[in-house]
């Protein structure tokens, strides 16, 4: 008899997963999500051997990740998952990442998944897969829901600037040859470092002032799966600013023709790294943010 929600990940935060803010970096939340999705695939009868034999893989069209509390080195983690929606060609998988050591919820994940062939083309879900997902259905109304603003705009704002440029390597990809969620988020995290530098939050300033930023929510849309060897560029735009929060987005484009392949809208918060709590955005940083906001957002933030 299946337990719903079902256990989908257990592990401990490793030292190499810690970032300059002193906690687990966002890319490793993505890595834990990959493991949970692999467990979910097994529950659907999509074993690794079957996926390899048939040339199939589960991909995301959209991820919404809520970062609820910090995770530190040595923390014991557990993730449970359930299917919250089933359609002819997609599944809604929800997961909760818990921090056993601190008895808290660390993150919540909402994934819209689809089955793809070797070329990344979307396929209808087999009847037996839909039936197994329905048997593992759980509304999970108590799981924190996405709370951010709208997803990234269709195009970059007029104040967008280059924040990342690199090629995709083999180790960025899963066994089916497609770029992993962790690798996408690693690109987004690197781009965020460039963006934060533009508003005066470099790593040296973070250490000297004890002030940084932490992510509250990611809203990722995957427009086309990527493979090793592709060259990607990210441009970033600031979107809005509150007393403590900042909103920005990244547009990921591939190749010389700059095909749009992914977007992410991020909500972050200014953070006191000593007190480990959210704070008001310092005035000097607020001024730099305001200068990079689109005109409409400047009016709303003034």
Chart the SSEs and their pairings:
Blueprint: E1 6-12, H1 26-43, H2 48-54, E2 57-67, E3 76-86, E4 91-99, E5 104-116, E6 122-123, H3 127-135, E7 161-167, H4 181-198, H5 203-209, E8 211-222, E9 231-241, E10 245-254, E11 259-272, E12 277-278, H6 283-292, H7 295-301
Antiparallel strand pairs: 1-3, 2-5, 2-8, 3-4, 4-5, 5-6, 7-9, 8-11, 9-10, 10-11, 11-12
Helix pairs in contact: 1-4
* CATH overall fold name of the largest domain: Thiol Ester Dehydrase, Chain A
| Number of strand segments | 12
So, CATH architecture of the largest domain? Roll
* Sheet of most strands: 12 strands, antiparallel
Task: Work out the strand percent.
Answer: 35-45%
Mean pLDDT comes to: 94
The DSSP helix count reads 7
What is the terminal separation in angstroms?
Answer: 57 Å
What would you call the structural class?
A: alpha+beta
CATH superfamily of the largest domain: Hotdog Thioesterase
Which stretches of 5+ consecutive residues score pLDDT under 50?
none
In total, the number of domains comes to 2
What is the element string, with H for helices and E for strands? EHHEEEEEHEHHEEEEEHH
Radius of gyration: 19 Å
**Morphology:** globular
Helix proportion range = 25-40%
What is the CATH class name of the largest domain?
Alpha Beta
């Amino acid at each position: 008899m299946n337990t719903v929600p079902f256990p989908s990940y257990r592990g401990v935060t490793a030292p190499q997963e810690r970032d300059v803010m002193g906690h687990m970096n966002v890319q490793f939340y993505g890595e834990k999500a990959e493991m949970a999705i692999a467990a979910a695939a097994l529950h659907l009868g999509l074993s690794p051997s079957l996926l390899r034999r048939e040339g199939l893989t589960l991909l995301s069209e959209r991820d919404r990740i809520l970062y609820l509390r910090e995770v530190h080195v040595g923390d014991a983690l557990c993730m449970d998952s359930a299917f919250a929606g089933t359609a002819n060609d997609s599944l809604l998988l929800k997961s909760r990442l818990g921090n056993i050591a601190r008895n808290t919820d660390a993150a919540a994940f909402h994934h819209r998944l689809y089955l793809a062939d070797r070329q990344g083309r979307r396929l209808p879900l087999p009847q037996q897969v839909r039936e197994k997902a329905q048997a593992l259905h759980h509304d999970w109304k108590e799981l924190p829901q996405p709370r951010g603003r709208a997803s990234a705009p269709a195009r970059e704002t007029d104040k967008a600037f280059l924040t990342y440029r690199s090629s995709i390597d083999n180790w960025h990809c899963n066994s089916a040859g497609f770029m992993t969620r962790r690798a996408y988020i690693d690109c987004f995290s690197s781009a965020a470092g460039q963006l934060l530098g533009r508003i005066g939050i470099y790593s040296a300033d973070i250490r000297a002032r004890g002030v940084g930023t932490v992510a509250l929510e990611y809203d990722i849309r995957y427009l086309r799966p990527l493979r090793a060897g592709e060259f990607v560029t990210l441009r970033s735009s600031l979107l809005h600013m509150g007393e403590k929060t900042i909103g920005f987005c990244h547009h990921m484009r591939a190749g010389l023709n700059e095909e749009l392949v992914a977007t992410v809208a991020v909500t972050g918060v200014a953070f006191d790294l000593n007190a480990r709590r959210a704070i008001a955005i310092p005035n000097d940083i607020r001024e730099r943010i305001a200068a990079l906001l689109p005109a409409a957002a400047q009016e709303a933030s003034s």
